[in-house]
Amino acid sequence: MIIGYGNPLRRDDGIGWSIVEWFDNNLHDARIEANAYHQLTPDMAQEISLAKIVIFVDAEEGGEPGASSIRKIKAEPITSSAFTHHITPSVLLSISQSLYGKHPKAYLAALCGEDFGFGEGLSHKVEVEIPMLAMRIKELALQELLVI
Q1: Which range marks the domain in which residue 12 is found?
Q2: Which residues fall within 8 angstroms of residue 15, CB to CB, at 6 or more apart?
Q3: What does the pLDDT average to over 76-86?
């Protein structure tokens, strides 16, 4: 499962949506489901609990525009702030574990944005990196599916 999230009306904050669109247009593998959301919400926990692997995709601020990373993430303790609109992937894993007794192996794929102003479309530095990050995510997902 690939979950891209962010706001596509805030330029590079739409990175997660662009990755999901890449998968919709370029990948035809029934084992990989890709969906885009504006934000992570507690109700996603059930669907996440059913996945073998989940890769969250988000924009990152403060780094070199176009730089990307993929890192493994783990569940973190649930606090009262877990039920605000700032739920992190790690908290979502914890909610899945608490409510459904399990959560999948999880990763966060991040791409540093350059322009988070109002508007549609990605900055050039980010747009050219989308296919490369998408291929890295695809390779990771398929590799993990073979291990499981």
Answers
A1: 2-147
A2: 4, 6, 57, 58, 59, 111, 113, 122, 126, 130
A3: 64
